[in-house]
Design a protein that fits this description.
By secondary structure, this protein is an alpha/beta fold. Helix content is about 45%, strand content about 15%. It has three domains: about 40-105 and about 270-304, 2-Layer Sandwich (Pantoate--beta-alanine Ligase, Chain: A,domain 2), CATH 3.30.1300; about 110-185, Ribonucleotide Reductase Protein R1, domain 1, CATH 1.10.40.60; about 195-265, no CATH class. The structure holds calcium ion (CA) (2 copies). One calcium ion binds near residues 66 and 73.
């Protein structure tokens, strides 16, 4: 009887101990995996940061090149606009990481802070945002210094910034603007720049929209303007694109007059998207910088 009891008791202890060891082993396994994950995440982050540095250097070199040639032009045929993929080897063998970097010209988009209300309403309508007119009013009221709403009522205190948006996602703080609305317009607008759009980097869709704002039904102007005069080379002077437009709208005495403040041929604001990857663990940095500010001043920085 006693013997049996001891046998069961010993077996019980053995089972408990085994379970404990298994649990401990599993916890250690999880802990090791977690540590490895965070270590790789950190490595990926440093790779992403060096990707940002590479991009900053490329933009700096481009600025120097433009300065030396005395042609301040930024277009999609330049080195900075080509995506960069780089394998990076670590100090211990067999370990590598990857950096992917993309640079976009922020002035290929329209600055929402300086947009006329008519234009903003048109953009929201075209991008199929619901209640576009009301939402454009809310955006304008949020940004403009004026403290009366578009409808003429006094603005409710605290609901409006009455200053320019600092980051585009601030749109989501505005009454009625949903994530869905934001996603519909985010590729066409920016919050930096003097309001001019770089005709050498603009998206076809944005160019379509801009021309349509000024010359209804004149899509042939877009065909002529886009990608001219020489594929990806871009326009080297404002006169180049103005001449193309004048030829196209000869019935109008001075079509360029309407839009001379809409386009430019170079840019100082750039968006860098840099991703580091180590063992399948990724870290992404998105930042916007003013490359003409001392040492490329970062205006916006986001990590995920
Ligand atoms: Ca350039
Ligand atoms: Ca206001």
């Amino acid at each position: 009887m006693r013997k049996g009891f001891f046998l069961v008791f010993s077996l019980g202890i053995l089972v408990v101990l085994s379970l404990f060891c298994l649990g401990l082993g599993f916890r250690t396994y999880i802990q090791t995996r977690k540590t490895k994950f965070y270590l790789n995440k950190q490595r990926a982050f440093y790779l992403a940061v060096s990707g940002v540095k590479i991009a900053q250097q490329m933009l700096e070199q481009d600025m120097q090149k433009d300065k030396e040639a005395d042609t301040y032009v930024d277009h999609l045929g330049e080195d900075w606009s080509q995506p960069i993929e780089k394998e990076v080897a670590f100090s211990y063998p067999g370990k590598t990481g990857k950096i992917s970097v993309e640079i976009e010209d922020e002035t290929s988009r329209i600055n929402i802070n300086t947009m006329q209300i008519k234009m903003l309403k048109k953009l929201l309508t075209e991008k199929e945002v619901e209640n576009p007119n009301n939402k454009a009013d809310y955006i304008i009221d949020y940004i403009d210094a004026n403290t009366d709403t578009q409808a003429g009522e006094p603005e409710v205190e605290g609901r409006y910034k009455n200053a320019a948006l600092s980051v585009l996602s601030e749109l989501l703080l505005i009454e009625d603007i949903s994530v869905d609305d934001y996603n519909k317009i985010k590729y066409f607008v920016s919050v930096v720049g003097d309001g001019k759009v770089n005709i050498n980097t603009v998206l076809r869709e944005t160019l379509d929209f801009l021309i349509e704002c000024f010359f209804t039904g004149k899509t042939e102007i877009v065909n002529k303007l886009f990608g001219q005069p020489d594929g990806e080379r871009g326009y080297y002077s404002a006169l180049d694109w103005q001449n193309v437009m004048s030829e196209e709208i000869s019935s109008d005495p001075d079509p360029v007059l309407y839009i001379k403040d809409i386009f430019c041929i170079n840019s100082k604001y750039y968006r860098i998207t840099s991703e580091g990857e180590v063992d399948g663990v990724k870290k992404k940095i998105i930042c916007v910088l003013n490359r003409e500010a001392e040492s490329g001043k970062i205006l916006y920085w986001h990590e995920n």
